[in-house]
Amino acid sequence: MNTPVVTELFFPSPTVSAFQLGPLTIRFYALCILAGIGVGVWLTARRLRARGGTTAQTLDIVTWAVPFGIVGGRLYHVITDNQLYFGPGKDPWGALRIWDGGLGIWGAVALGLVGAGIGARRAGVPFAAFADAAAPGLLLAQGLGRWGNWFNNELYGEPTDLPWKLQIHAMNQATGQALTGSDGTPEVLGYFQPTFLYESLWVLAAASLLMFLDRRYRLGAGSVFALYIVVYTAGRFVFELMRSDPANTILGLRVNTWVSGLLFLAGIALFQTLRSRSRSEIGTPAPDPRHGPAAPIERTNT
Question: How far apart are CA 60 and CA 144, in angstroms?
Fold first, then answer.
């Protein structure tokens, strides 16, 4: 009598995080970031057109916001995880190798907003209108970017035996390949909570919620972005508590846990301040072919 084979359920991770294209090393982490930027820009342009803007204005602003955001994200990562790059035996030049991974969302958003402010002023777009239009797209970009962590086999939670546990390999990030054991198979470090997946699903749901609330209630200028801060930090606070990778701490909590909690409170206060304002608009919204030409609206100073 044959004994049935029991197959263990788990969520696999890639054993390859990069590939060669001629002399270039293409990192899947970078491709995920680029895919997120592309989807985020597409949704932002669509939402800005609904507020009376144009795709050209979106692209003009993004040209400033994205480079500022990447620099800010890297700076935040290097500052908060400086022990990875500075000190005895460390390679300080690694702080510049952004393609190896390491972008802090708080730095990316902070400097990205500075770039967006410059671009919005040059494009003649009220800053609040762009920020509200961009908020859901920013969430989608973050969700897609998290899949870069999946390719890198990083940012996982505590060990678990849940059916959706994440299999993690020992990776050589320099080569983009999993280390192999004596039998030639990829070395498995263990099975952990897939926090990258939880966050990716959370931000997808959060983006849908923001778009629904914006359509349903015509939220005041700037309040959509304030809600972005609230919903994202609420989830991020929980996910940071679940993570088991090394991180700097303050009073026993990870730095990003503290930042998430403080920004959550700030986001609520900002939303309460802005929600009663007029909706952020640029001018006459683009006609909707389903309903005929849009009626002109009064321009607001937001």
Answer: 23
What 3-state class would DSSP assign to 222?
coil
Taking only the tens place, the pLDDT of each residue in 21-66 is 888 888 898 899 999 999 999 999 999 999 999 999 999 999 999 9
Q: What pTM was computed for the model?
A: 0.83
Cβ atoms of 180 and 190 within 8 Å: the answer is no
DSSP summary character for residue 87: S
A 10 A CB-CB count for 185 gives 11
Within 10 Å of residue 268's Cβ, how many Cβ atoms? 16
Cβ atoms within 10 A of the Cβ of 66, count? Answer: 19
Can you give the C-alpha Rg of the chain in angstroms? 22
For the chain, count helices (H), then strands (E).
7, 8
Of 77, 85, 138, which Cα lies nearest the Cα of 102? Answer: 77
- Beta strand 249-250 with 253-254 is antiparallel
DSSP label of 95: G
